[in-house]
Hints:
Radius of gyration: 12 Å
Structural class: mainly alpha
Strand order of the largest sheet: 1-2
Number of strands: 2
CATH topology: Arc Repressor Mutant, subunit A
Number of helices: 4
Helix content: 40-55%
Distance between the termini: 31 Å
Number of domains: 1
Amino acid sequence: MYVCVCKAVxxxxxxxxxxxxxxxxxxxxxxxxxxxQCGKCIQTAQQVLNQSIQDLYANNRIPxxxxxxxxxx
Length: 73
């Protein structure tokens, strides 16, 4: 599904970028332009970002820069 229609960014693209190491809305905005036009996608993009990070933790495929911020199990 498209999360950001203005920049044609899908949930799949966000998940892929999280897998490559992106870990914040600021990074998504810089890399993909998410939330940089009308802003209606910000809430959904944040949800996809959060879920993607949780999925990485659950599967023990955590990007190195997120290891320090790993929540206690």
